[in-house]
Amino acid sequence: MYVVSVINYKGGVGKTTMTANLGAELANRGMKVLLIDLDPQASLTFSFYEPDDWRDRLRDERTVKRWYDGLRGDDPAASLGELVVTPGPANAHLKGAGRLDLIASHLQLVDIDLALARGVADGDEYDAELFRVRGSLAEGLHDATLDPYDLVLIDCPPNFNVVTQSAIIASDHLLIPAKADYLSTLGIDYLHGNVRELVDRYNADSRRFARIRRHHKVAPGIAGVVFTMIQLMAQRPIAAHQGYMDQVRALGVPVFPTALRENVTLFAANTPRGVPVVLRDRITNPAVRDELRQITTEFLAHLQPEGAVA
Ligand SMILES: Nc1ncnc2c1ncn2[C@@H]1O[C@H](COP(=O)(O)OP(=O)(O)OP(=O)(O)O)[C@@H](O)[C@H]1O
Ligand SMILES: [Mg+2]
């Protein structure tokens, strides 16, 4: 099982859109995919479930909030496996034996985040608690009921708080959607540095607090930056976008060869409800779907350099 976090501090760069479509396309190719929505905005959740449906069927029992509540000891702990749901419309569109499941988010996940970060005293006790929480998602994913999944894709919120950190620590790879603009390119370098610092700190803590958790070194790699919302002119990115794409390549961070073009019409509407663009049969601009499929192929090639899965 691979665990991949989709991450960027910057908001609105297409993380959630990429998570939903990548997950959907991989499931359509026969993989068993589990999506985890770690963003209290719950955009990924609401791209598969109507808000009313979420409130009636998921809010109280089936969201990732229960997992993080369990860490604080407020409520009896739920295992991650107990929280999984299967979005109907998306799965009805899958061709083969693949599967697209979800652990939904909760609008109050933000409160937990703040409480976790400040809920313990300074010093050793604080460091130990932070270490425990940072490693908690990795530990939760070692749940036998999750063994059948080939891939876990985690949609992170646009920040670097402790819930996001737990996703990074749980990950084998990080995927970074980005827009090709000035602020996004600054952010990528910064993100890269902060991930490295977090991982070094976690691995050092792992030796220091070996009594809490068996030591195992984490080393998430950068799967790459995937550019989104690119404007094209004569089938090529406009010069302003191309310039920033080149700058990011020059940072030495891997960049996906294929970028996703901007298409407000296709992505603004969640119709038909709950079915990501890549799975829809009739769309106004099939080139968008082709790009999503191509990005998926490039992503798979990164996970499995031998190309074991088609
Ligand atoms: N290629 C695209 N072309 C046009 N609009 C897009 C594209 N990709 C995503 N969008 C739209 O841009 C908005 C932001 O996308 P999305 O929610 O995926 O970003 P995000 O990085 O997850 O945001 P946040 O940081 O708030 O979680 C959404 O309204 C989405 O529909
Ligand atoms: Mg999002």
From TrEMBL:
Residue ranges constituting the AAA domain according to the UniProt record: 2-204
Source taxonomy: Bacteria, Bacillati, Actinomycetota, Actinomycetes, Micromonosporales
Record protein name field: Chromosome partitioning protein
Coiled-coil stretches noted in the UniProt entry, renumbered to this chain: none
Domain of life per record: Bacteria
UniProt cross-references to Pfam families, sorted A to Z: AAA_31
CDD domains for the chain: ParAB_family
InterPro entries attached to this UniProt entry: AAA_dom, DNA_Partitioning_ATPase, P-loop_NTPase
